[in-house]
Design goal:
The structure is a homodimer. By secondary structure, chain A is of the alpha/beta class. Helix content of chain A is 26%, strand content 26%. Chain A has helices at 4-7, 23-35, 59-63, 78-83, 149-161, 174-185, 205-217, 265-269, 317-331, 361-366, 419-428, 432-436, 452-467, and strands at residues 14-19, 41-46, 87-89, 92-98, 103-108, 114-118, 121-124, 128-130, 143-144, 166-170, 189-193, 221-223, 228-233, 239-244, 248-250, 253-256, 260-262, 294-296, 303-304, 311-312, 345-349, 352-358, 371-379, 390-398, 404-411. In chain A, the strands form seven sheets. In chain A, strands 3-2-1-7-18 form a five-stranded parallel sheet. Chain A has a five-stranded parallel sheet with strand order 9-16-10-11-12. Chain A has a five-stranded antiparallel sheet with strand order 21-22-25-24-23, with helices on both faces. In chain A, a hairpin with a 4-residue loop joins strand 4 and strand 5 (103-108). In chain A, helix 2 packs parallel to helix 9 (317-331). The relative contact order of chain A is 0.11.
């Protein structure tokens, strides 16, 4: 690890300091390096973990065995970043940001040594931390989170060692359902314990119900409306069951997939602006509000939801990469923006595909929007074509204007990525009536003559017209 | 067949006459019937063939064996239409439209009987006819078109009877490549003879080249730059080879997939407006220009290309169905429009997926547009996820403005329907720079962290910026 390089500051070149060596931070560093030579811009990046630029979203597929080894999930290693003249310091935690002084205090985790590093420009990409329930037994052996590669390895080690075959997943969001698939693939009996009334609370409950039924069809036991109160351990100290208010679910292994929160402890201490969802607030160029030379991106920021007009927190690698690209461009003196999100997400449990974009019913109400809904069932291919699979599409449109507000899709192969049609239409502010005329790819192996999204749009347009007189 | 019903005209109800009982015509009739009762609107439809509402696009999959029987391709039978109070007259050809008199002359093909039927409103949905080369041998036994179900059945009969296993497909557009797949699936040695420099002239030649290579990889012999001069027959009168200017290709069966032209003979005789591509010209409500009570739709019309601003002819079931819906609504006194197309098409040859939307390079030049191009290679899923497949995406953007002009995609599973992202973006008039920020569905089984379409947009945006100073 060459720290000397960092201190060898020439008179004119600027120093960019990056806190966090994952998607947003290292994308920012790489993009800045593409645009500025080491003579113009020195780049120092701090990462407290063992890995850089890894795909957290890939962990369920590594645990489940679809991805054979950990290293496949690392997009770029520390060595590769260093070869591109980024002074990347691993296992080094930033413990303070001194905004007034334009410097950060770093601590080498292994040696405990601390030092200040000054910056001309700062990027905060501290990511998110998993929500760990504050309950007895949450730290017992056999209870695992799945946020980092170390977490994934620890879980795989447990799965390899454990003889029992009963797994309980706490949480039924994306991580929860993906981990349910991973554990099914490894031959476990899987129970998913969920606080909500249906799995996938990022969908409306009527669509979540379809996920529920499909998961049970896959042999997964789904327990809804259940709050985990404690994790019970055996005489050996290891997990033996998960307890809710009503029942106990025996478990040889427990996976916590409850979600994440922005990691903004440092930013908060430094007095930087934090939003209602605990994320850093930035402008559209990803500059921290009120700070000309500080940017933030990835899982630690809030982003503008283009449909509701409000800030949201969404932890997703695809956004983190885009933020990094925008930050790197701006930090290197260029110009780029991240205009916001429409809230697109796609996931799967075995062969069940789940997708959503835009607002759910409750989001629309919260935003003060009145809406109509339309739900249709159609197929991924022409009905007569082999492997044509059913899918359900739900669409929300604004009352009177007919503007598309959101789409949710649950189905089999070919269902999930159809959400992109709606994501682009939402971004463009299209009405459902306009969507009916969209010129989408049609051939029998790819779509019915009316694409399912268009069938939903047609029904939604009808509902808008029926309601306009009210 | 109840003709009496048609003559039993009450004093006030109107009569809608539909010429052509396939997608556009019967969609129009069905939609009009949904909106108007038989007491308000009488609907008479003439179809000269044996079938209604069938999927011509499905014929290659029926011939190839993916679709087990013909009846699966019939979306709605004549009996089903009649049960919904549509007076459908099969095997009845309209041989004249008398616009001034508001009537059409029909001929019962089997009996030869002719009669006039008056109309208050008329729908022309006469479809397209295949281009049959005017050359010796084109009508020989063993030479087949694939436009109608009768054509499909005749080809299947030939394939069943013929002992030889050599097939020549003339034409390398959608029909040609899909028929190549069908014949491969039936165990034939397939040669495709193509006039252009590469297959799929709906793509630029550099992308067609990828299709060429993939087809050869599938064991299909691809002959480009070859004009078929005659079809040679044996002593038994059956086809034995296809001759070009340079060579002869032995053939036990020949499939003609050269394309289609609007069937507008009747419309032309009636003095209705015909465009540069031989199609009827309509307004955006699908009303024949200058004729308040005549509509036309489906393969016999020209449509507005929203990207170039010009009329085009595109024979595609998905458009025909939309036209029918719009016409039926308007003919029943409602309001709907078909705003135009962006030229989206998707197809496959075995596991190779081919898609395009918007303008090719030559279309852009013809429209007076200057453009930049970007071509990238990426994968359908995260690189580390199983079955992640390569795809090539080519993007055209307008010089200076950066407006998206077109996208072409060639790849394997997951490539084809990605064109919908671009189709919606084209419709919305987005720039490639705006597309870079699109919030598309991301999870490792569905997409790399940067969707291939976004990677192409990023590269195209760079090319636009590099070129803006010029």
């Amino acid at each position: 690890m060459s720290m000397s390089a960092a201190r060898d500051v020439s008179g004119t070149r600027e120093r960019l300091v990056v806190i966090g060596g994952d998607a947003a931070g290292m994308s920012a560093a790489s993009q800045a390096r593409r645009l500025k030579s080491p003579e113009e811009l020195e780049i120092v990046a701090f990462e407290r973990g063992h890995f850089t630029s890894f795909s957290a979203c890939g962990i369920p597929y590594w645990v489940g065995g679809d991805v054979p080894d950990r290293d496949r999930l690392i997009a770029r290693t520390a060595e590769e970043h260093r070869a591109r003249d980024i002074d990347l310091r691993m296992r080094t935690e930033v413990i303070r940001i001194d905004v007034a002084g334009g410097r950060v205090r770093a601590r080498d985790i292994d040696s405990g040594a601390e030092y200040w590093t000054s910056y001309d420009k700062l990027v905060i990409a501290t990511g998110a931390r998993p929500i760990r329930p504050d309950m007895p037994g949450a730290d017992a052996p056999g209870v695992h989170g799945v946020q980092t590669l170390d977490d994934g390895q620890a879980l795989i080690d447990t799965l390899t060692r454990t003889r029992g075959r009963r797994a309980v997943v706490v949480g039924a969001g994306y991580i929860g359902v993906e981990m349910a698939e991973a554990l099914i693939n490894r031959g476990y009996e899987v129970t998913v314990v969920n606080r909500g009334s249906e799995p996938m609370s990022t969908l409306d409950a009527d669509m979540g119900r379809l996920v529920h039924e499909a998961m049970e069809g896959l042999g997964i036991t789904m327990v809804n409306d259940a709050e985990v109160t404690k994790i019970l351990t055996g005489d050996d100290g290891r997990v033996r069951a998960v307890a809710t208010q009503d029942a106990e679910y025996p478990a040889d292994v427990v996976v916590l997939g409850i979600g994440v929160r922005p990691e903004t402890t440092l930013a908060r201490q430094a007095g930087l602006p934090i939003g209602d969802h605990d994320g850093l607030l930035t402008d559209l160029a990803m500059r921290v509000r009120g700070h000309e030379n500080i940017w933030a991106g990835g899982d630690c920021v809030e982003v503008l939801d283009l449909v509701s007009g409000r800030e949201r927190h969404i932890a997703l690698g695809t956004h983190a990469n885009k933020h990094g690209q925008v930050i790197g461009t701006n930090a290197a003196g260029g110009y780029a923006t991240f205009p916001g999100v429409v809230g697109t997400a796609v996931s799967k449990v075995c062969d069940l595909e789940i997708a959503r974009t835009g607002l759910r019913e409750k989001d629309a109400r919260r935003a003060g929007l009145q809406y109509v809904t339309a739900t249709i069932e159609s197929t991924s291919r022409a009905g007569y074509y082999p492997d044509s699979a059913l899918m359900t599409v739900k669409m929300l449109a604004e009352r009177r204007t007919g503007r598309l507000l959101g789409v949710q899709i649950v189905g089999r192969e070919g269902a999930g990525k159809r959400v992109d049609i709606a994501a682009v239409a939402l971004t463009a502010g299209m009405t459902v009536e306009q969507m009916v005329s969209l010129d989408l790819g049609y051939a029998p192996p790819f779509s019915p003559v009316w694409d399912p999204v268009l069938v939903a749009a047609r029904k939604a347009a009808k509902a808008v017209h029926a309601g306009t007189s009210q």
